[in-house]
């Protein structure tokens, strides 16, 4: 199928993402999970022509730190790639939006025709660009929860967007167990270990570790299920509440009385975690509230 005449390919080296993401300052490194992901999409394959892209799946419940883990991996290894592309895969509309934007960085599309680009033309153009290019690239499809579920409203055929090129690595970040089954060895991200959880909570709260705080922090992180996002939200709340910083053991009492208000204070973390990650918070929050 021929592309529209105004699709003139250009040489692109960079990182595309609709929203700016960064690893949070209190990111908890998980070397074992990093290494598992590295095993899936490590160094370039020899004689990989015709094999198609390599696909890795990072999965787990909302709020455990999947996107942050993948973002940390990307920052460590992006020098190995000619370019990288971070796609919000939470809905078909956001994937289409990102592929339209990607087509405009891979092709010299005149300003006069930018509004005339059809989504399917953009998807086709992007896929053809990679098949005709030389280099190594990585795609991250973040929030890929509604895929592989034909009967589900909003189901997305994610493979429709995959360039069929062996020099591309693809990471799917998802809460869906069905998505995990797309590969032989998915990377499962579970809750933090208790010590990691305490460190994250206290760091977010702006408090140093002490023997007295350690016991209180352990009770807090256990109540919060050792979920990274929950700990970040709650720790941030403590950091901004002077009376709780002075008397941390009052936190659980207040949390049990007002957990809905405490856990819903997320706007300050939007830029750090990214919109696609925070959209999973409702599920995580509901689980904690019901369990508390």
TrEMBL record:
<feature type="domain" description="NB-ARC">
    <location>
        <begin position="52"/>
        <end position="203"/>
    </location>
</feature>
<dbReference type="InterPro" id="IPR027417">
    <property type="entry name" value="P-loop_NTPase"/>
</dbReference>
<dbReference type="InterPro" id="IPR002182">
    <property type="entry name" value="NB-ARC"/>
</dbReference>
<dbReference type="Pfam" id="PF00931">
    <property type="entry name" value="NB-ARC"/>
</dbReference>
<protein>
    <recommendedName>
        <fullName>NB-ARC domain-containing protein</fullName>
    </recommendedName>
</protein>
<dbReference type="GO" id="GO:0043531">
    <property type="term" value="F:ADP binding"/>
</dbReference>
């Amino acid at each position: 199928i021929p592309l529209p005449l105004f699709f003139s390919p250009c040489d692109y080296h960079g990182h595309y993402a609709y929203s700016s993401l960064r690893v949070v300052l209190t990111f908890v490194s998980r070397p074992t999970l990093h290494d598992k992901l590295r095993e899936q999409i490590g160094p370039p394959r020899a004689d990989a022509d015709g094999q198609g892209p390599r696909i890795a799946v990072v999965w787990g419940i909302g709020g455990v730190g999947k996107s942050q883990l993948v973002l940390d991996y990307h920052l460590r290894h992006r020098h190995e790639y000619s370019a990288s592309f971070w796609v919000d895969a939470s809905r078909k509309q956001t994937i289409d939006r990102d592929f339209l934007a990607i087509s405009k960085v891979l092709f010299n599309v005149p300003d006069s025709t930018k509004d005339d680009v059809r989504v399917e033309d953009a998807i086709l153009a992007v896929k053809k660009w990679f098949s005709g290019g030389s280099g190594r690239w990585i795609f991250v499809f973040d929030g890929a929860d509604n895929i592989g579920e034909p009967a589900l409203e909003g189901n997305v055929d994610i493979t429709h967007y995959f360039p069929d090129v062996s020099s591309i690595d693809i990471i799917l970040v998802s809460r869906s167990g069905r998505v995990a089954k797309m590969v032989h060895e998915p990377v499962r991200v579970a809750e933090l270990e208790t010590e990691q959880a305490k460190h994250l909570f206290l760091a977010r709260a702006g408090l140093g570790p002490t023997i007295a705080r350690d016991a209180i922090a352990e009770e807090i992180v256990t109540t919060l299920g050792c979920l990274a996002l929950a700990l970040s939200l709650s720790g941030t709340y403590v950091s901004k509440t002077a009376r709780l910083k002075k008397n941390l053991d009052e936190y659980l009492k207040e949390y049990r009385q007002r957990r809905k208000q405490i856990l819903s204070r997320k706007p300050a973390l939007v830029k750090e975690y990214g919109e696609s990650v925070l959209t999973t918070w409702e599920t995580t929050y509901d689980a904690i509230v019901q369990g508390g």
